[in-house]
Protein: Cache domain-containing protein
Amino acid sequence: MFDTLVHAGLSRSDSELVIFATGEAHKAMELADNAIAQNKIATADFFDRHYQPIHGSNPECFTTALTPWADANWQPVLDAIVASDSRIGSAVFVDENGHLPTHMSLYAKPPSGDVAHDTLYSRKGRIFATPINLKAGQSRAEYMTSVYRRDDENADYIVWRSVYIPINIGGRRWGNLQISYQL
Structure:
């Protein structure tokens, strides 16, 4: 229902964030396309789905051929997105299977062995194969929105709104830029 309301233009604030997220997704795709054109990364690396477990991670995290490039190139984009607007609490690139090849610096801490800490701060490499992430990964809409709740260290959970903008690499659907925010 929330997605229908946003698509109908009934929430100006949500629509503003959709426009912002669309621009950021286009910048990220251009960054990726330029890196491919300059042979800094292969298109195939973006589509590596051989998720390799990261030793000592709990919840389990995974790495792929994309991870080093994503850490160096997409993580600064994510950090800048969050720093640009106080309503934004999180930004991630998520493939169609729910894998996060990188995350914002705050949530990309190496696994510490403390499950409570790592659940919140070691999100890089996690696979969030939730129904909404999988639906967003398969959607052919120009964007999708949702409302969800996320664990929080200061409360049981926080309610977030998210916008998912498709990311295409080399003309092929890779996944989404997901920006989560509160109004």
